[in-house]
Design goal:
The protein has 331 residues and is α/β, with parallel strands linked by helices. It has 13 helices and 13 strands.
Length: 331
């Protein structure tokens, strides 16, 4: 089938292409090439394009780059998930260099170029960071603002998320600044805690699939506990603020949930729920999440800090958490 006969918007392709896979064939005499029914004999990687409205030209840019690199491509699926366009391609080869080249094309869409994808038909686990990932704020910054030390604490938060300061040290510094503040501030923050767009869609979609969903946060237990109860999550992990006589003491109780702890929690939850490591997905935005993203079968950075953008396996910048659900369904 000539690409020329396909509509510009990829959401309109499904009726024409049905559910079959198509091999991309470069046709030098035809500017847009052709699609022929078939399957790759050997799959070494996956490319997933995601967007609010993907166009044929977006797909062609990626196909042409892959063709120039000598990589055979199978167009394995075109669908809509959570009202987002998703195109899944199987690749005959994969490399980090290829991923970086494809990333330069992603101007108004997101992409994942990875060696493997989780299988949506099998049990799985999604473990999320909370602050600036599951919710739109940094809870400690909001507590500090209400306590009158907002600028001081926010500066330390930024340094920690960008990797300029060890997380555990930064957390203790920030909590120390809260000493003496009224702990009732916690309830004020919970009452005005904005969820990240797509969070409910993601959680409901994963639960419908029978997947597990949990939080691992460098924040605090009242907030992760509230989300676990209201959203029906399977587990939550966070830090415990020391409160005496209704006021913060400026101390954190117990071990801190830092980068190493988040990665460990991911693997422990997978074992607890009898889920293969390849079926785990981690989502975060800061330097404190990088080890967790690396440990997961699929690590996804959401609207992440520059350091995380450079190192994360997958970055979502156009879509929000509904994009994670789309990635889970991409296989």
């Amino acid at each position: 089938m000539l690409m020329d006969v396909l509509p510009e918007q990829m959401k309109d392709w499904t009726e024409l292409l049905s559910d079959q896979a198509y091999l991309w064939q470069s046709a030098k005499q035809e500017q847009s090439g052709i699609l022929e029914k078939g399957h790759l004999s050997k799959v070494q990687g996956h490319l997933v394009l995601l967007g609010k409205q993907l166009s044929k030209s977006a797909l062609l840019q990626n196909l042409q780059l892959l063709d120039d690199a000598g990589i055979a491509v199978e167009v394995a699926g075109i669908k809509q998930v959570a009202e987002r366009d998703v195109v899944s391609l199987r690749l005959s080869d994969w490399s980090l260099e290829l991923k970086q080249q494809l990333q330069t094309l992603a101007t108004d869409w997101d992409l994942a170029c990875v060696p493997t994808l989780p299988d949506a038909t099998q049990p799985g686990l999604v473990l999320m960071d909370m602050d600036s990932t599951a919710i739109q704020i940094e809870c400690i910054d909001e507590i500090a603002r209400l306590a009158g030390v907002g600028e001081e604490v926010a500066a330390v938060t930024r340094a920690a998320m960008e990797g300029a300061l060890p997380f555990s040290d930064s957390l203790r510094l920030r909590v120390k600044a809260l000493a003496g503040a009224d702990a009732a501030i916690i309830e004020q923050v919970i009452a005005n805690m904005p969820l990240m767009p797509g969070l409910i869609t993601l959680v409901e979609g994963l639960k419908a699939m029978g997947w597990k969903v949990a939080l691992a946060s460098g924040g605090f237990t009242p907030f992760t506990g509230h989300l676990r109860e209201t959203l029906g999550l399977d587990a939550d992990f966070a830090n415990t603020l020391d409160i005496q006589d209704g006021r913060f003491t400026g101390e954190v109780l117990g071990d801190i949930v830092d980068a190493k702890a988040k990665a460990r929690i991911l693997l422990e939850l997978a074992e607890r729920f009898n889920i293969a490591p390849s079926q785990t997905v981690a989502v975060g935005d800061g330097a404190n999440d990088l080890q967790m993203l690396a440990a997961a079968g699929l690590g996804v950075a959401l609207h992440a800090k520059p350091l995380v953008q450079e190192q994360a396996p997958v970055c979502l910048n156009q879509l929000s958490l509904e994009g994670v659900l789309a990635l889970v369904h991409a296989s």
